[in-house]
Amino acid sequence: MKILPALLAHNLDDLNAHLRAAEPHFTEAQIDLMDGIFVPTKSVSAQDLRSIQTPLKLEAHLMVGDPTLWIEQLAAAKFKKIIIHQEIGTAMVGAIRIIKSLGLEVGVAINPDSEALATKEWWHELDLLQVMGVIPGHYGATFQPITLEHIRTIREAGFTGLIQVDGGVTPETGPMLVSAGAQSLVVGSYLFGSEEQPDLAKIGEKLHNLRTALGTP
User: Fold this and answer.
1) Which residues constitute the domain of residue 174?
2) Angle at the Cα of 44 (from 40 to 49), degrees rounded to 5?
3) Could you report the per-residue pLDDT of 39-60, keeping only the tens digit for each?
4) What is the pLDDT of residues 77-125, one digit of tens each?
5) Number of Cβ within a 10 Å radius of residue 215
6) pLDDT recorded at residue 74
7) Rounded Cα distance, 137 and 39, in Å
C-alpha cells in the first residue's frame, strides 16, 4: 500500500513549507494544480514549479480545463507523472497522448459525481485511475461514500492499472478504501490540517496512525 502526501500549491512559500515537512516521511508527493476555472481555487503556474528543489519524486494532479497548457512545463520541472480529469471531455485524449509522448506516466481522475466507466475505452493508455474521495478544489472537503462503489466498479470492469484514491483519506476511511480495492492513497488535510489552520508538526505521528489503521505500521 502506497501513501502519498497531497500538497496544495497556492503559492511557492506554502508549497515549499509543505515539501520540507513531508520530505522526512515520504519518497513521493502529489502536487495539486488548479486554474481557478475547472475548480474555484487557483494555484501557482507550472512554470513556477521549475524553481522548487526537493528529493521527492513528484506527480501533478491537474485540476484544469486545458492540461495542454501545463504539460510541457511540468515535464521540464521534472515531474514523473501527470493526472488529468476525465471531466474535461474531449481535451482528455490529446492530453493523454502528449503526456505519453514525453515519456511520463499518465493517470485520469474521476470525480465522485461522475460516471466511473466513462473513459473505459482509454484505460489501456493509462498507468492509473485516481478516484476522487471528495469534490476537488480545497483541503478538508467531505468524504463521499460513492468512492467505494467507484473503486469496486472499476476493478470489476477489468482495469488492471493502479487504483489511487485522493481526498477524504483518514484512519477511518482508509481501511474501507483498501478493502474496496484501492492500492494507493493520497492524503491531504488529515496530514497537513486545513488551509486556514495548517498543522505541519505532527505529520509523522498522523502517518503512523494511518498506517496502523491500514495494518502496515
Assistant:
1) 2-214
2) 145
3) 988 999 888 998 999 999 999 9
4) 999 999 999 999 999 999 999 999 999 999 999 999 999 999 999 999 9
5) 10
6) 96
7) 5
Q: What is the CATH number of the domain that holds 45?
A: 3.20.20.70
- Write the secondary structure of the chain as one string of H (helix), E (strand) and C (coil): CEEEEEEECCCHHHHHHHHHHHCCCCCEEEEEEEECCCCCCECCCCHHHHHCCCCCEEEEEEECCCHHHCHHHHHHCCCCEEEEEHHHCCHHHHHHHHHHHCCCEEEEEECCCCCCCCCHHHHHHCCEEEEECCCCCCCCCCCCCHHHHHHHHHHHCCCCCEEEEECCCCCCCHHHHHHHCCCEEEECHHHHECCCCECCCCHHHHHHHHHHHHCCC
What is the Cβ-side half-sphere exposure of residue 163, based on CA atoms within 13 angstroms? 24
For the chain, what is the domain count? 1
Amino acid at 216: T
Which amino acid is located at 139 in the chain? Y
Q: How long is the chain?
A: 217
